[in-house]
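Example 412, ligand RFL.
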Amino acid sequence: MAQAERKLDEVPESTTVVVIGAGPAGLTVASLLRRCGVDSIVLERRSRQHVAQRQRAGIVESRAVRMFASWGLADLVLGGPPHDGILEFRVDGKSHLVDDSDGSEGPGARLCPQQVLVQKLTATHLADGGEVRYETADITLHDLTGDRPTVSYRSADGTVHTITCAFVAGCDGEHGVTRAAVPDGHLTAHTFDHGIGWLTVLADAPPPAHPLLAVSPHGFAAHFPRGPHSSRYYLQCPPDDHPGAWPDSRVWDALRTRLADPALTAGPITDRETFRLRSLVHDPMQYGRLYLVGDAAHIVSPMGGKGMNLALYDADLLARAVRDHVQHHDDTGLRTYSERCLRRVWSDQEFSHWLTRTVHDAGDDTHCGPFLRNLARARLDRLFTSQTAAQAFAELMTGLDPAQDHPAATGR
Ligand code: RFL
């Protein structure tokens, strides 16, 4: 009985940053802080095994590769081969190769699946002496606008813990608790729904030679590498479609038709889900001493591969801002965190929106009508024929932003 009572006691602790969520955003914040000697505790709702197996993104863009390199972490946390910088658009079966590297010096993008990044970030952080607590429940945030916020949670054995900290990093994704802890009226949510659905399928099937986007009157489809023997596929579908409507045979038939590749090799499908293409931005990305990072602050439709990369961008800015506060008593980074993140967020939202509209409108004219279809086809034609248009596209794909990534602009 005495033992049980002790277990329910509150266990008070303190740290500099409580990081909530051990996805790409949370693990990156914690790893970067660890690198510069700032302590943190990461609280994650799920088990380590569950988090390490969640498969989503597949490319770490050039900017993020260079970010990890600047912290001495690139070789430790990035797996997978370099991306060769070529993206294939297949329009009505005709192939157009577009160079999506921006020609600047330094390492380029990596074909590093999200789960590999998460596994390596976790291992590196723990080896560096960092702390991640899994299977935490009932996280509650207190005094976010005071000098010393507290975070309480219950561990798997029923003990209630209370951690006092200087900052809370809300890295708990779209449906987490941190953004929900902000009182009404402090954040504005900007939302957009494309009215388009995607079926996404993971399969043990050969990856394409280059990431491939296919446009045709049959509807949009895409094929991306996810490892030496695995692929992720996307198929445009009605916005409220259900994965059960897509048995294996229908998936492979649709892919062969839309990719204009009757010989496409099938393989066992390991995951299949449907979702709507939509976007969401919360502004500002801060409330008191709570800083929102990654999907907790913004969702970008997967077209263009920006969601995870934005999370890494936010994480880098927050880690630098906290470091400057702790070590140099400089609050500039904390003060400008939201504004600087949102500038990048809106730039990537715009790119993702442009690419989403272009590849969907150009194909299925029952979706948007012939006028918008011809506009989208003209945009693709410009991309394939104008060096200037291709250069702008490559700059957006790599994620490098001359105004923000120049050392003088970042103060690195
Ligand atoms: P995550 O990855 O959702 O991690 C949040 C973590 O927080 C935990 N959590 C909690 N922990 C404690 N207490 C609570 N109450 C909690 N609630 C949640 C969760 O268990 C989880 O571990 O957010 P993060 O770190 O911000 O990372 C964002 C990325 O995961 C996301 O943007 C990308 O996956 C988006 N995305 C893609 N991004 C790309 O850059 N390129 C891509 O090719 C790409 N493909 C995709 C995608 C997302 C997809 N989905 C989700 C529709 C493909 C798909 C299918």
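Summary: The mean pLDDT is 93.
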